[in-house]
Amino acid sequence: xxxxxxxxxxxxxxxxxxxxxxxxxxLQVPPPSKFSMHYLRKMATYVxxxxxxxxxxxxxxxxxRHIACGKLQLAENLAWLYFETFDILLEKTAEERLQWAxxxxxxxxxxxIDKLKNKLSVDTLQFLLFLYVQQLxxxxxxxxxxxxxxxxxxxRSPDLDVKxxxxxxxxxxxxxxxxxxxxxxxxxxxxxDPEQLTISAHTTHxxxxxxxxxxxxxxxxxxxxxxxxxxxxxxxxARWQPILGTTxxxxxxxxxxxxxxxxxxxxxxxxxPFGTALCFQKGKKLAWAQQVxxxxxxxxxxxxxxxxxxxHKVVIMTQVYKQTLAKSSxxxxxxxxxxxxxxxxxxxxxxxxxxxxIEKCRNTTFVLxxxxxxxxxxxxNDVKVIAICRRLxxxxxxxxxxxxxxxxxxxxxxxxxxxTFAPYHTYYPLLEDHMARTGIATIxxxxxxxxxxxxxxxxIPVYQLLPPKAFYVFVIPFExxxxxxxxxxxxxxxxxxxxxxxxxxxxxxxxTVKEAGLSKEHRRLFQNLVEKKFCEWxxxxxxxxxxxxxxxxxxxxQTTS
Length: 561
Fold this sequence. Notes:
By secondary structure, this protein is α/β, with parallel strands linked by helices.
């Protein structure tokens, strides 16, 4: 419920661009040229004329496929990629996600899966807004979509030393706000009935937007009133009684005056109080179950998870060096995690997460709990990511290995080289419980079917599947309570066979040593030789650092007693 007007000296509404829409919902590649305003206006008109035929107010997958492939000349797999990306953002329950996974698992062919897809539909106006905001990553050397230089130097974020390039725009709250303010008029035009646009494609002085259409703005904005901590969708705030005259809403017609609504939005839009910028500046330090003192004082781990409401938790880790960090707690549950410039680390985040961004990291292993939406890796070298997620995407990275279970095809974007994909190969006791909470099942699993987008077909292949002979299972070195005792879904047959073959060789070797009839002295010498070779292997692979960092540091009381 809204606070009463008497409870506040002056009713003040604050709005901000939704963090998840831009961080998760925008593919970090330049959009197709047909996503320009010219074509989106045509699409808006077309779907409304089709009405109940899957065009408006719900856009069906068959209708979008018809428009994307027949009108916009997109490949069908690219059309599905955008439809699927939008679906990832929808507020579906874990039960609904698992039900869909079960239906897909029952399909015996691609044709049956296609028939299942035909049942899907999304909000038409929100989908139009979704296609438009893909232009956040539009590449232009001189001018932006509207003919001005963008992003301007003023819009660059001072935190995290992030450059204003197409890959970092998604992660920067300042860019989100700059973009929506620069393009607000066109975003609102997509909500108009087509007949309200003039021949010159501009709004008239009397243009009106229906209250139902304004609901679509919930995809882009949310806000609060005064000091009230409750968060409201924008369509409810726009109809709050004390400010109806400002927002241009008419109770009689149930319509908003276009220009008054636009002016009001511009006056109340501001920084996201739950975004990365404020989290980095004002967030609290997050305590870790395992943390070894590093060799740098520049490391920073901030979070707003102690105060942020559900769906707005943010955790930022930057410039962590030569450390092992581990955590499994409610503070991470459902959080958006941003990891930046971490080198030579082992990082375990064993909780259900909302999204994860890993940028400019080197020689680091990440073991993640199930990620409800996306994991994006950008500008990394020699990292390993072990995770279960709905989507994995990679850009501008090299020599990285991904052990993943993912319900959508991994996205390989531009600038990558020497990527390796392998099946998910570990577990921890709470894993299956966390998977259920995020709505991720073991089927479908497309870990071995990467999809290249924005990559020149003439380029040298940028990825490979890990050969079974080079495959090993991964053991998480922490004890915790739970029921999961094996890798969810098991391993693909070739990898399972390789593991069993290796286990058989070990058993044969143990049998050979046992039957060798070595004396006590020879057994001691042999054991010393094996330990020496093992230590050499630890040094060569860098695993000694991880083992040493797992040894608890004595407390001051222990060292002085």
